[in-house]
Sequence to fold (115 residues):
Amino acid sequence: MDNNLKIDFLSVKDKDFFEDSKKVAKKYGPGNAKKLQSRLDDLDAAQSMDDMRNMPGHWEELKNDRAGQFSTRLQGGLRLMVKPQKQPPPTKPDGGLDWRAIDNIYIFEMADYHV
Fold:
C-alpha cells in the first residue's frame, strides 16, 4: 500500500513547468531550479505534510489571503507554494491546518509574495 503524500498539479502546464528543471532554471535561475528539485524530492518521500516540518526549506503554514496554503523557501524571497487538495482542508481544534491529516496536495505556484 502506498502511504506517500499524493502530489498533483492544477494543470498540465504547471506539471510540465515544475517537473522540467531547464524551464525552471530559465525563468528563476539554476539555484532555484536545484532548490525546487530538492523540495520536490522531499515532498515525494513524505507521507503527509507533517513530515515536512523538519525538512530543509522552512515549511510554514500561511495566513491572511494565503490561509490554507503552505510555503517553503527557495532562494532569495522566492517560495514554492502548495495547498491541500481536500477543501476545506483538515484543521485542528485551534483552527490551524492539521498537517498530519494532509496527505494530498497541489503544487501551484513559485513566487515572492513579500513584494
